[in-house]
Design goal:
Number of helices: 1
Distance between the termini: 38 Å
Number of domains: 1
Structural class: mainly alpha
Helix content: over 70%
Shape: elongated
Oligomer: single chain
Strand content: under 5%
Mean pLDDT: 72
Number of strands: 0
Order of helices and strands: H
Low-confidence stretches: none
Largest sheet: none
């Protein structure tokens, strides 16, 4: 159960970070990878 909770929390955190990253990239021109 604890592992599931940790995974869920991590997933949410990653999702938020990913959302911010996408928002930043959306505002600015596409960066070279």
């Amino acid at each position: 159960m604890q592992v599931s909770n940790g995974k869920s929390m991590e997933g949410i955190t990653v999702g938020l970070s990913w959302r911010r990253f996408i928002n930043k990239q959306h505002r600015r021109p596409p960066l070279k990878h």
